[in-house]
Amino acid sequence: MSAGSDVRGRVLDRIWGSVPWMKLPDRQRFRVKVFKSGNSLALRLPANLGFKAGMEMDLNVENGQHFSFEIDDLPKRKFNVAKVCGSATSLHPIADEDRQFEERPLAWPGTGEPGEPA
């Protein structure tokens, strides 16, 4: 890989980071083997995929030719408040006098009060 393509790759990674819905999914291909296990057929998957024995999955079959798996028991993402707590130390509550709005002329008739004709 040349230095120019390496720089281009880093720039594209930065662009995809800001618009993740436009990034193409990362796909890998593996040659796997189907074997007999009791009265069923089993599919041997590479260990580096990160599956654990006993994981439940949904198998999707499209037109009898295309197969895809979806993991059922993915852990839910959690937001860690401890990481952001205290990070905005320069923020202060707004004073009551700063919460008041000044009256201004409206570009349409009426004041917008409930029950008043416009």
Task: Describe this structure as you would to a colleague.
The protein is α+β, with helices and mostly antiparallel strands. The protein contains two helices and four strands; from the N terminus they run H-E-E-E-E-H. It has helices spanning 3-18, 81-84; strands at residues 33-37, 40-44, 57-62, 66-71. Strands 1-2 form a two-stranded antiparallel ribbon. Strands 3-4 form a two-stranded antiparallel sheet. It is elongated and about 80 Å long. The mean pLDDT is 77.
Order of helices and strands: HEEEEH
Structural class: alpha+beta
Largest sheet: 2 strands, antiparallel
Mean pLDDT: 77
**What percent of residues adopt helix (DSSP H or I)?**
10-25%
Rg (CA only): 29 Å
- Specify the overall morphology: elongated
Spatial order of strands in the largest sheet: 1-2
Strand fraction band? 15-25%
- Taking the alpha carbons of the first and last residues, their distance comes to 68 Å
